[in-house]
């Protein structure tokens, strides 16, 4: 555990704690930032902050106590016009973050290609710049100057934003519509890296039956509200868990409820069902999907190394993934996504090349390349010593392999997001054959419209149609709590919708 003592010219404002800790986490797996100076033998960083009229003068000096190694950085920045104390503080925070990142880069020799950016959705910055009327060059300069984002990552953002606007030309005008997320909180087993609401389905049929009753109720009530107010649905996404964990009969009733409850289902731009676990896919379930005109699914190998699948708790074989992919294709699924994860335990460039070679034999319409993230509540994070993962350098090599492979096979990047504790401070990127992109993935990442979450553990994200203000709301994560309170939670969601759309 590395302890970094921070002295900001005597300032101990706790609002600095979080941004400085997030930047520290980019360099050290285990660290603690303390705003109180001490004589510790660890690392100290001293900031001198002076504000004269409209200029911020800042210098940062990092000292390693034991070796007496010292690194310094200083610069000045104009204070931009601001209206509130919060906006002013943000400028100070950004300046301190800027100086802090520079001294840590110099001290460690690690260059952070995403700069001071620790947020999940970088491309939102590019969209904001476009909506404010910035030219491409102005937007790029702003991202480089204000956030220290590398040109490589800015170009990636540019490609993605251009593709998104080609796929959804009215992306900036979708706030008067909604999308729906339907969560099915069951899986055959729980993967070691997973923190989604997911319960092993074996022996829980009573819970499944009760849960589905509540979900049908939510679908009817929300659908009724949307119909009465003439609000369109842009996309519907069945996630989880694994939505194909339930039986074919239960799936059939669920999609029938969707057609009966939701307005103009035939005009919804996209309906996706995650069939991520190949061991849940059967001919009967594929027939149900076909019956209800659902042809976009996700069949997720994660890796084509059997030892890896066993290590992370996915109880299916590599062969089963390939067989179920072909079965889905033969039974009319015309838009199949596959997820791969870079940096899984025991895997390096050799194993990832094998996974890409196997993917080449299948050529799904879209491919989402995730970088492993140590999520706080996952089994993998709780037992880090058990799961040996690749180094930062090797993880970066694997990401470049994915970039080169997708480009050479006709895929284009169309969405991107980042996570805390992600290996190598990298990103997750969705690639697609042009014209086969997921509308839902774009909408949820760019936060352009409200997404109403239905089902156990489903989160709603309400976007105010005029102000863009975001309100989060989550259903209970465990089936029993959900079964006890789904009516109450449905009513609360409807009250939020009334505030958003009727005022």
What would you say this structure looks like, in words?
By secondary structure, the protein is an alpha/beta fold. It has two domains: 1-109, Ribosome hibernation promotion factor-like (Double Stranded RNA Binding Domain); 168-497, tm_1862 like domain (pyruvate-formate lyase- activating enzyme, Alpha-Beta Horseshoe), CATH 3.80.30.20. The protein has helices spanning 17-25, 85-108, 123-131, 136-147, 151-167, 205-229, 248-261, 283-291, 306-311, 318-330, 349-362, 379-382, 392-408, 439-446, 479-501, and strands spanning 2-8, 31-34, 43-52, 55-64, 69-78, 178-184, 186-187, 199-200, 233-240, 270-274, 296-298, 335-342, 366-371, 412-417, 428-432, 450-454, 459-463, 470-474. The N and C termini lie far apart (51 Å). The mean pLDDT is 88.
User: Could you tell me the number of beta strands?
Assistant: 18
How much strand content do the residues show?
15-25%
- End-to-end separation in angstroms reads 51 Å
* Structural class based on helices, strands and sheet pairing: alpha/beta
DSSP helix fraction: 40-55%
CATH architect. name of the largest domain: Alpha-Beta Horseshoe
CATH topology of the largest domain: pyruvate-formate lyase- activating enzyme
Count of spatially separate domains:
2
Mean pLDDT, to the nearest integer, reads 88
How many strands, what sense, and barrel or not for the largest sheet?
9 strands, mixed
Low-confidence stretches: none
CATH level 1 name of the largest domain: Alpha Beta
Shape: globular
In DSSP terms, counting alpha (H) and pi (I) runs of 4 or more, how many helices?
A: 15
CATH superfamily of the largest domain: tm_1862 like domain
């Amino acid at each position: 555990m590395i302890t970094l003592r921070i002295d900001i010219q005597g300032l101990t404002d706790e609002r600095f704690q979080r941004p400085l800790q997030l930047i520290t986490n980019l360099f050290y797996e285990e660290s603690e930032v303390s705003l109180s100076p001490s004589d510790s033998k660890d690392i100290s960083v001293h900031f001198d902050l002076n504000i004269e009229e409209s200029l911020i003068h800042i210098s940062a000096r990092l000292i390693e106590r034991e070796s007496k190694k010292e690194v310094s950085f200083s610069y000045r920045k104009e204070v931009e016009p601001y209206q509130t104390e919060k906006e002013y503080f943000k400028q100070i925070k950004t300046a301190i973050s800027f100086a802090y990142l520079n001294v840590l880069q110099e001290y460690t020799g690690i260059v952070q290609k995403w700069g001071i950016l620790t947020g999940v959705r970088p491309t939102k910055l590019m969209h904001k710049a476009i909506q404010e009327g910035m030219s491409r060059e102005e937007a790029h300069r702003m991202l480089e100057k204000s956030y220290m984002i590398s040109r490589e990552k800015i170009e990636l953002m540019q490609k993605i934003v251009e593709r998104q606007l080609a796929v959804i030309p009215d992306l900036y005008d979708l706030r008067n519509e909604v999308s729906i997320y339907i969560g099915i909180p069951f899986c055959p087993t729980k993967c070691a890296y997973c923190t989604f609401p997911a319960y092993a389905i074996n022996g829980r049929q009573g819970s499944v039956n009760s849960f589905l009753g509540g979900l049908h109720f939510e679908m009817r009530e929300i659908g009724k509200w949307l119909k009465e107010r003439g609000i369109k649905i842009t996309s519907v996404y069945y996630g989880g868990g694994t939505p194909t964990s339930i039986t074919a009969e239960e799936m059939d009733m669920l999609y029938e409820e969707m057609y009966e409850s939701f307005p103009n289902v035939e005009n919804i731009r996209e309906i996706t069902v995650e069939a991520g676990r190949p061991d849940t896919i059967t001919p009967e379930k594929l027939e149900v999907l076909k019956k209800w005109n659902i042809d976009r699914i996700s069949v997720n190998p994660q890796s084509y190394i059997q030892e890896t699948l066993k290590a992370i708790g996915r109880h299916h074989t590599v062969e089963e993934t390939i067989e179920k992919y072909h079965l889905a294709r033969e039974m009319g699924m015309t838009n199949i996504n596959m997820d791969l994860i870079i940096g899984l335990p025991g895997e390096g460039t050799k194993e990832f090349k094998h996974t890409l070679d196997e993917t080449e034999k299948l050529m799904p319409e879209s491919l989402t390349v995730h970088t492993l993230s140590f999520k706080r509540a996952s089994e993998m994070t709780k037992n880090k010593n058990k799961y040996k993962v690749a180094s930062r350098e090797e993880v970066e090599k694997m990401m470049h392999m994915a970039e080169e492979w997708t480009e050479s096979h006709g895929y284009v990047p169309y969405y991107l997001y980042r996570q805390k504790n992600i290996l190598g401070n990298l990103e997750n990127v969705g690639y697609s054959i042009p014209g086969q992109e997921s509308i839902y993935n774009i909408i949820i990442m760019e936060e352009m419209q409200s997404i109403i979450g239905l089902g156990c553990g489903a989160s709603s994200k309400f976007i105010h149609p005029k102000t863009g203000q975001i309100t989060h709301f989550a259903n209970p994560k465990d089936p029993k709590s959900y079964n006890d309170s789904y009516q109450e939670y449905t009513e609360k969601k409807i009250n939020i919708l009334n505030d958003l759309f009727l005022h």
